[in-house]
Design goal:
alpha+beta; N-terminal domain of MutM-like DNA repair proteins; Helicase, Ruva Protein, domain 3; 4-stranded antiparallel beta sheet; glycosidase; Ribosomal_uS13-like_H2TH
């Protein structure tokens, strides 16, 4: 799933390649991806892209005051093309969901792999009209996100820190991959309860969040949209690397599987050398 660093890089890529261009037309190949109807998506035809922003994991294209918001969800992606085929795509064929044609012949496809179609496109007058944007927590790379902000978020919550970091209404933009990375940098168990954090723990976690995400954004800066997935995978230290050696201590990276996801961690760095329980349990093995 594209998370904050990748979406920020896609926003930067579109600022460079799409801002100042007019939208010639938009082809919707998967009608289920379009979540709004007023204004209609055809209202964007002939208007100019004047800016690109990011709200958590949402891309926001300002098109002369009308906003085209995109959430790539778990398996979606944005594929830029310097020359798009002029013929409209056949609806419902392949991974293509939406195609945006610009006035110079370039543009981008929004595609989604797999059978669970969750990619979402909104056309709104105000980004806050989108429930997922309106409910977002603070941006972890924004000036308003401080140690004190994080302390207030964690205070009294009897919630495992892994799940809390992934909750978009709590902190915007962190998903499964970067929550694993943040907790590895912080040397914390993913099952640690937020209510148990000391002041020192809060500062350590805050530094890990800002450092990990900031470093990922810098690594992705200037990388072409088509190469961002590979760059992300290359930069991860524990997520998706179960069975490999931890780059910090050399221990074997372990995994905990759940119904629809999995987390990875280093026992030596994060859990005092103890393996975490399997998906049917949520505590350290005795």
């Amino acid at each position: 799933m594209p998370e904050l660093p990748e979406v920020e890089s896609l926003a930067a890529f579109l600022r460079e390649h799409a801002v100042g261009r007019a939208i010639a037309r938009i082809d919707v190949a998967a009608i289920s991806s379009l979540k709004t109807y007023d204004p209609p998506i055809t209202a964007l035809n002939g208007l100019t892209i004047t800016g690109v922003a990011r709200h958590g994991k949402f891309l926001d294209l300002d098109v002369d005051g009308i906003h085209l918001l995109i959430h790539l969800s778990r398996a979606g992606w944005l594929r830029w093309k310097d020359a798009l085929p002029p013929a409209p795509p056949r609806p419902g064929k392949g991974p293509l969901a939406v195609r945006v044609h610009l006035d110079d012949g370039s543009g981008f496809d929004l595609t989604e792999a797999g059978t669970q179609k969750r990619l979402a496109v909104y056309v709104v007058r105000d980004p806050a009209e989108v429930p997922g944007v309106r409910s977002l927590g603070p941006d972890p790379l924004g000036a308003a996100f401080t140690v004190e902000t994080l302390r207030k978020i964690l205070d009294g919550r009897r919630t495992q820190i892994k799940g809390l970091l992934r909750d978009q209404s709590v902190i915007a933009g962190i998903g499964n991959a970067y929550s694993d990375e943040v907790l590895h940098v912080a040397r914390m168990s993913p099952f640690k309860l937020a209510s148990s954090f000391t002041d020192e723990d809060v500062t350590t976690l805050y530094d890990a969040i800002v450092h990990t995400l900031g470093e990922a954004v810098e690594r992705s800066r200037g990388v072409a949209a088509k190469d961002l997935k590979g760059e992300k995978k290359e930069g991860l230290r524990v997520h998706g690397r179960a069975g490999q050696k931890c780059p910090v201590c050399g221990d074997t990276i372990k995994e905990v599987s759940f119904a629809d996801s999995a987390l990875q961690y280093c026992p030596t760095c994060q859990t005092g050398g103890k393996p975490l329980a399997d998906r049917r349990m949520s505590r350290l093995l005795k």
